[in-house]
Amino acid sequence: MKIAKALSLLGVAVAGLTLFSCRADGDFQGLEYAPQMYHSVAYEPLTQIKDESRGEWLSNREDEKGEFFNSNIYNPHAMNMREPVAGTVPRNKGGYLPYRYKAFEVEIAGENVTNPVELTDEVLKDGERLFIQYCSPCHGKKGQGDGKVGEIIGGVANLTGGAYINLSEGHIFHVITKGKGRMGSHASQISPERRWEIVHYVKQVIQKQ
Ligand code: HEC
Questions:
Q1: Domain definitions of the chain by residue range
Q2: Pocket flag, ligand 1, residue 176 (CB < 6 Å)
Q3: Which residue, 100, 172, 96, 181, is CA-closest to 135?
Q4: What single-letter DSSP state applies at residue 33?
C-alpha cells in the first residue's frame, strides 16, 4: 500500500514537473534538461542574455556570473555586436563600395563609373565565358541581338551596331547592374567583379569584331 502511494505521488510530481517545463515564453525558457547543451559559451547577438545572475544555481564559471549570462561587458549596453564606427562605409567581398546609382541614373553613371578591373587576357577569357553564360541567350554569341531567348522577347539591343558602339564602360556596367527597359537586373546573379569582366569583353571583343 505504501509503495503504491509513493508511486502515485511520484507520478504526480513527474507530471507536474513535465507540465511546468512546458511553460516557456520570451523571458523564461522553461525547465531544460542538461541546459549547458543549449547555452553557448560564445557571444550570441540574437539570444543575448544580460541578466548577470541568470543560471547562478548552475554556474561554475570563473567570473562568477550566472551560467546563461553571455553579454560582452566591455561594450556599451553590454552589446555583443558593436555598431559600425560613425561615418564608415561598408565594403563588399571584393573590396568594392556599395553601388549607389539608381536605375534611372544611367547617364550620370555612364560618365562617372570607371572599370576597376585591369584588362588582361585572362580577364577577357573569363568575360567571354560569362557573356556566353549570362548575355548570349538574349544578345547572341556575337552580341548581335539574335539569341534564342531574344527572338521570343524581342527588342534586344544589337551591341555591335549603331549608337551602342559608343556606350561607355560605366554605362554597360550600370545596365547589367540595374537593368534597362525589358532587360532585367543581373546584380543578384553576377558579382561586381565579374560584371566588369563582361564589360571588358563587350568593349574589347564584341564591339571590335
Ligand atoms: C533576358 C534577355 C536579356 C539578357 C539575359 C541580357 N540582356 Fe541586355 N538587353 C536586353 C534587352 C531587351 C535590351 C533593350 C532594353 C531596352 O532598351 O528596352 C537590352 C539592352 C542592353 C544594352 C543596351 C543598353 C542601352 O543603354 O540601351 C546593353 C549594353 C546590354 N543589354 C548588355 C547586356 C549584357 C552585358 C548582358 C549580360 C550580362 C545582358 N545585356 C543580358 C535583353 C537582355
A1: 30-83, 106-208
A2: yes
A3: 172
A4: S
- As given in the structure block, the three cell numbers for residue 113 are 563609373
The CA distance from 178 to 104, in Å, is 9
CA distance 15 to 149: 65
Return the SS3 of 76. Answer: helix
Name the residue of 180, 190, 205 whose CB sits within 8 Å of the most ligand 1 atoms, as the mutation to test its pocket.
180
- Would you mind telling me the total number of residues written for the chain in this entry? 209
Beta bridge partners of residue 16, listed in sequence order: none
* Structural domain 106-208, CATH architecture: Orthogonal Bundle (1.10)
Residue whose Cα lies nearest atom 17 of ligand 1: it is 181
What is the pTM for the complete model shown? 0.71
Q: At what angle do helices 121-134 and 192-204 cross, to 10 degrees?
A: 100
Q: Is the CB of 167 under 6 A from ligand 1?
A: yes
**DSSP structural state of residue 80:** S
- The band of 9, judged by pLDDT with boundaries at 50, 70 and 90, is confident
What pLDDT digit, counting tens, does each position of 35-74 carry? 777 766 778 877 788 899 988 988 888 888 998 888 998 8
